[in-house]
Design goal:
Elements: H1 3-15, H2 21-25, E1 26-34, E2 37-40, H3 42-55, E3 60-69, E4 72-82, E5 87-89, E6 92-94, E7 100-112, E8 115-123, H4 126-130
Parallel strand pairs: 1-8
Antiparallel strand pairs: 1-2, 3-4, 4-7, 5-6, 7-8
Length: 140
Amino acid sequence: MSLKDDMIAFIKTIESGDTDVVLRTCHPDLKWISPFGANEGNEGQRQWSAAWYEACPDTVHNCFNWFEDEGRLVYQMDVVGTFTGPMVTPTGTLLPTGVSFISRGCSFVHWRDGKITEWRTYFDPDILFDMGMLPRPDGA
């Protein structure tokens, strides 16, 4: 299997509600960075994934434009979902907005010995406004 195949299987398993797949697939010393914040360790990432899918259980990742080279994987994605449940964060609980979103972005994933060791995700900021994490600028 290719890293792309491994990543697709990983994402589909998380989307099905099995966030323990993070413990099986991510290295214990995982470094994950995104506009939402950063996590170190696979347990921190499992907790983040569980909180995300509690808040947005219908989330689907539509991934495309894959690039793979020597343990590195890059792909673009459209993440689609609806913010229907509370999201517990380190700074407090975000109440659901009921807003459906499409967030466009990309991920850079490093694999070593069959485990994800580093994962950086970048995306457009609209989802931060849709989820109430940032106030929407006037006129936006």
